[in-house]
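for the writeup, i need someone to sanity check this before i put it in the appendix. the sequnce is what the collaborator sent (i think, or maybe the updated version? ugh). structure was predicted straight from it, no edits. if anything looks off just tell me and ill rerun, i have time this weekend
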Amino acid sequence: MRATLRTVLRKSSGAVAFVLAVAATTPTGAQAPGVVLNDTAYYPEGPIVVDGGVAYAEMGADRISVSDATGTRTLWRGRNCGPTSIAPFGGGFVVLCHQAAALVVLTRAGDATEVITRDDNDRPFPTPNASRADRRGGVYFSSSGQFGPGAPATGAVLYLDANKSLRRVAEGIHYANGVALAPDGRTLYVSEHLSRNVLAYSVGDDGSLRQPRIHLSLDRLVGPAPAGRWEVGPDGLTTDRAGNLYIAEYGAGRLHIVSPQRDLLATVAVDGAYVTAPALSADERTIYVTAPPVPNPGRPGKVLAVPNPIAAD
């Protein structure tokens, strides 16, 4: 079902273009000497590179922001949306409204044109969270489910195709969170946050998912979460052209970079304990990171640009 646009949806457009140089490779495990792009981002999540700049959601401010060489501006704002992700779609973007359980389709300039609240089977998708565009013009996104100790595995992944057909392609995930595609587009990675696993699915020609499997366990990779810290787990994901997987460990203030063979290549400490997601610059030398300090959308966090420790010199 596609709801009629409401008057609460509005935008503020602006140019989106800049190139940020970040110096020096960071040693494995070290604090990244990053550049702060925005230190008043209210629970920032879901960054993407847009014409060399970076766009991201601010869940606590109900807006999509863009940071570039001229500063930070609002691309779009939607009251009670609680956005957590933005992805390229149809020449513009699609925004995930986590709190409103909706998708909002935007033009490139930030004009809202459509709101989607149900899939093709007339089912809602509660708590949409992270998104990833594919080469077919579609977008995968997670519908997380309940977040808490002992929560049931009700998370799902949905696929919005280029014609705006929306269907579930995976279910039964223990809090579905970050999503990322392998460089060839044939594997979709999904953070199963509450199990501290990253899942992998084979991608069909029609966008369907099959052969679910555990790709890696954070417990095995870097050790278990501290006792009583049930919220610490894999959040946003991205991949580079070599197929390395970048994993934001929410609650631990760090990013892990893992090879296709599941070897840990680097861990980068981030200034923000509840780091939510990474994105790579076009040359892959810079990692853009959204990093709230606490799990509270009412508190400002940071958007950072940090050196990629595995980037070639």
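The longest helix spans residues 218-222. The CA atoms of residues 81 and 100 lie 5 Å apart.
thx in advance!!
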